[in-house]
Amino acid sequence: MCSAARERADSPSRIRAMNAPHPATAPARHILEHVFGYTAFRGEQEAIVEHVAAGGDALVLMPTGGGKSLCYQIPALLRSGTAIVVSPLIALMQDQVSALVEAGVAAACLNSSLSLEESRAVERELFAGRLDLLYVAPERLLTPRFLDTLDELRDTHRLALFAIDEAHCVSQWGHDFRPEYLQLSVLPERYPGIPRIALTATADQLTREEIARNLRLENARRFVSSFDRPNIRYRIVDKADPRRQLLAFIREDHQDEAGIVYCLSRRKVEETAAWLAEHGVDALPYHAGLPVEERSANQVRFLREDGIVMVATIAFGMGIDKPDVRFVAHLDLPRSVEGYYQETGRAGRDGLPAEAWMAWGAADVVQQRRMIDESEGGEDFKRLARARLDALVGLVESTTCRRQHLLDYFGEASGPCGNCDNCLEPPRTWDATDAARKALSCVYRTGQRYGAGHLIDVLRGERSEKVIERGHEAVSTFGIGADVDDRTWRSLFRQLVARGLLAVDHERYGALALTDAARPLLRGEDEFMLRLVPEKRGRTKRRSASTEIPAGIPTTLFDRLRAWRAETARERNVPAYVIFHDATLREIALARPHTLAELGGISGIGDRKLEAYGAAILEIVAEAG
């Protein structure tokens, strides 16, 4: 349950008394260190905090685990009044509130999980001016009763800011669309002058523009951090026996570690979870069709116990703050690169090594295309969905660095990462230079007005109705690719698009057009290589991240600290990572502090946690000798 933690209102770690305004001089760095326990901001965090605290609007794109929450939590503590945080999921609100309460911040949430009396108690705290942050779902915020509450806060100058978390939910093209988010455009109309910050971990250029337009943040300052998650290793394999491939992956690399397995259908989720459980994996199912009680219980177990594997549809995961998810696996092709990045980003939030593993096959593409064709969306929606699927297929078929390909999709230049399957085990390829030139030539000869399906008919010499109607049986490229099968041609066209030699014109129904990048290949100055189906081969086993204790850390002390944390979390009725992350425990075990001052210098330990847990930790360190 979300609560305001009134019992901690007088903690010395508070930046201000609950009923007093923030001191104008309270610096962001002071809050960062003494409340949240960090000595330095990362990336653009400080610039974002200063901009919002000064009253500016912001659109923030920052990868999962990059510290987005601090970008509005610290301004909330710097500004007078209560910050209203719009969050789409109850679990996300509860995690955020629990973590803030542990840090000594007065936070609460309003959602359907609260009883009437609990909701009224939160509202009393709000009206009394005793809340720094209040988390609400968009549906709750938009009710007349809550808008009246916000009006009163505005009129009494007690409305600090609006934070819109998971802002990609406003995109109608996105994978997590929530129609209620569209109505949040009421905020600047009704509450002008109150700063707004919208945050998301995943948005390509099209989604960014839609977020800005739909939330009326066109004039907001944009902060775009690197999308790179260097601690995640990307690996994509061809489907053979996917369940057994998944089981081997878990047993070899992630035994007894937390992970998420994504499947496309509810039936497959349940069957896969049951099958893994039969083979010794502590796996649980999660999808929207499960009874609410079972779904909630499974989520709680995943968040609070070690080594649980959650098998889920994409209904699970958004806003899951569990930092020690060591792998994310896909047994079905995601719907887009954006969705893939969002889902894989749930691994390794603590910065420790993690893996994104996927098994895919041609049948996945067929199934996804059928789902798009049979969807209720209009032609514009279907055309964009097909283009995004093609971009994802380009990623899985790529012979070059996965990370480089992924970052390029989000407009970020990079070099080979050395930490993906293609970098670590370069794939076998075939020289498709001649076929690629034929394909590019066919695009040109037919006027750069057609999609891949028609171009393949021309190349293969198929006298289809459309080919005859357009007179394309007479072009010089008709039939010059008859020796290449349809599947290979489709793979080739996807890679030509993926590598930027062809551009997709969405306004002209997916027509392919040459880009300047195609010229070197057409002039004979470049070559074009494609992936061959790999042969089965052995792979060096990677030790699991949880057992990789850096040199110098006493494993026994680390284990004792984890055991103490687990017991403390049970007593507090919160997930263990809300008490401390593994990274903080590792640093304690390495530093072996003897005094509260030494302990307070460790990352992740603010004043409130030092006061609450310092003596117990020092005792454990002393007992370890």
Q: CATH class of the largest domain, please?
A: Alpha Beta
Widest β-sheet, arrangement of strands = 3-4-2-5-6-1-7
Write the CATH architecture name of the largest domain.
3-Layer(aba) Sandwich
Radius of gyration: 27 Å
Indicate the percent of residues in helices.
Answer: 40-55%
Number of strands: 17
Q: Mind summarizing the main beta sheet? A: 7 strands, parallel
CATH overall fold name of the largest domain: Rossmann fold
Unreliable segments of 5+ consecutive residues: 4-25, 540-548
CATH superfamily of the largest domain: P-loop containing nucleotide triphosphate hydrolases
- Number of helices, where a helix is a run of at least 4 consecutive DSSP H or I residues: 27
Q: What is the domain tally?
A: 4
As a percent range, the share of strand residues is 5-15%
Task: Round the mean pLDDT to the nearest integer and report it.
Answer: 86
Span of the ends, CA to CA: 39 Å
Which class best fits the helix and strand makeup? alpha/beta
Shape, per Cα inertia axes: globular
Protein name: DNA helicase RecQ
Region (Disordered): 1-22
Pfam families: DEAD, Helicase_C, HRDC, RecQ_Zn_bind, RQC
Catalytic activity: Couples ATP hydrolysis with the unwinding of duplex DNA by translocating in the 3'-5' direction
